[in-house]
Structure formats: C-alpha cells, structure tokens
Amino acid sequence: MKKTLLALAAMTVVGALPTVAHAEDANPLSFNLSLTSDYRYRGISQTRLKPALQGGADYAHPSGFYVGTWLSTIKWIKDFGGGADVEWDIYGGYKGEISKDLGYDVGVLTYQYPGHDLNPKPTTTEIYGALTYGPATLKYSHSVTNLFGFADSKNSGYLDLTANFDAGNGITITPHIGYQKVSHNSDFSYTDYAVTVAKDFSGFLLSAAIVGADTKEIGGVKAYASPANGKDLGKAGLVVAVKKVF
Questions:
Q1: Which of 39, 48, 55, 107 has the largest CB neighbor count within 10 A?
Q2: Domain 2-245: CATH class, spelled out
Q3: Measured distance CA(15)–CA(38) in Å, rounded
C-alpha cells in the first residue's frame, strides 16, 4: 500500500489523473487531500503559478472496475473572464492484466468547471487507455469534445510516458514526458516533462518535482501566457506538495 500511495503523490504533482486505489487494497473506498505549491496539469499551471487545495474520493471494486471524483482550486477560468474557481473531475474505468507483468487501464474522464460562463465551454471529456509494464506506463487520452475551451479542438490527443522507480527508504522517483496535440490549434500543441521525488512520512506524502512545458511563441508571447499577468504558465519550476490518503 505504501508504494501505491507514493505513486499517487507523484502523480498529483505532474497532474496525471485519475489516482485510483489498487483493487487488492483491503478497503476499496479511499479519500485524498493535498496542498500543492502550484497545480500543474500536463505541464501547464492551472493556478497562475500559485498554490492549490485539492481532494478526491475513489472506489475500486475487486473486479477491476473503478469510479472516482477529484476537485482542485484553479485561477485560469477567472483569468479568462469566467466565474469558476474550482475544477471538478469525474471518472470511471476498468483495470486488468494481460499477463503477469503487463497491465491495462481504460476509462473515461470529464473535467467540469461549475459556473464557468465561458464560450467556447472549457468543460472537456476524454477517453483513455494505458498499458503498464514493470515500472513504466504508456497512456493515451483522446478528447471527444472540444479541449479546455479551444474552438474546433475535438479529437485532440495527449500521449504520455511515466515510470515509478523505488529508490529505497520509502522514496520513489517518477520521470514523465508527454505530448499534447490540440487539434486545429497547432500553435498550442506542446511537450511537457517532469521529474518527481516523493517520500512517505508517517502517512503524509511529501513530494518535490521539476515541471515544465516546451510551449511555442505566438507574436513573441508564449502560447500559454497568463492573461492576468503575462507570466508563462508552462515555465519550468519547482512544485512541492503534501498529500494524505485515508
């Protein structure tokens, strides 16, 4: 269980969802609460490089089916003139094994922003599939709606490769690289990366990560610059977090 929790902490920092408990855990229902210095999702800050409070709940059935929900404070919707200050994710899927060392995960995830008042809508739904072999997981997410408010961006895709390495003494190291393609909005496609180190301290999961995104410039301005202050939301930086799973 401890190794699973460390992996969840690392995934929170790099912004990979969902974070679902393993089916073999004694209690299929789990809750999580975390505080992070910056909510980065796919390398892009959702909080204008500021801290975020996050929490969620997961239910993993022994058969492999799971459902969950997760929320985080955000700033980017209001920065674009909308009214939402919370992201609310709802997801479900199925995990299984092809062989002893090869596992898979398929599911659907919807991102909701209650009260956003933006057009195009930022609400997004993706289907995803992942293969895990040893410490490495290769995952592809495909949007069946417009992607996070980009017009005419249905069928965008995100491909990422993440690995979890046990360094001993309760420490895990998690390297990650991903590529976000934004359909019909190629200037906003980019590569993101992260390296996370996490350690369990008596049930509290502390993590630190270097996170960034190689975004393009449009007219001399970064494609993912904050409309509030012009800062590059994909700028490489240190993100620290503390998380409790119970």
A1: 39
A2: mainly beta
A3: 10
Distance of CA 214 to the CA centre of its chain: 17
Show pLDDT as tens, one digit a residue, over the chain (246 residues): 333 333 333 444 555 444 444 444 568 999 999 999 999 999 999 999 999 999 999 999 999 999 999 999 999 999 999 999 999 999 999 999 999 999 999 999 999 999 999 999 999 999 999 999 999 999 999 999 999 999 999 999 999 999 999 999 999 999 999 999 999 999 999 999 999 999 999 889 999 999 999 999 999 999 999 999 999 999 999 999 999 999
**Neighbour-count burial for 97-118, b at 16+ CB within 10 Å, e otherwise:** eeeeeebbbebebebbbeebee
Only one residue has tokens 């491909």, namely 159
Question: Distance (Å, rounded) from C-alpha 170 to C-alpha 223?
Answer: 39
Q: How many whole angstroms from its chain centre is CA 120?
A: 22
Q: What is the rounded distance in angstroms from the CA atom of residue 60 to the CA atom of residue 32?
A: 14
CA distance 105 to 1: 19
pTM of the model: 0.90
Q: What is the DSSP string of 42-91?
A: TTEESSTT--EEEEEEEEE-TTSEEEEEEEEE-SHHHHTT----EEEEEE
Number of Cβ atoms within 10 Å of the Cβ of 174: 24
Distance CA 114, CA 73 (A): 12
Tokens representing 94?
A: 């199925």
Domain ranges of the chain: 2-245
Q: Which two tokens stand for residue 112?
A: 């909701």
Residue with tokens 């398929």: 106
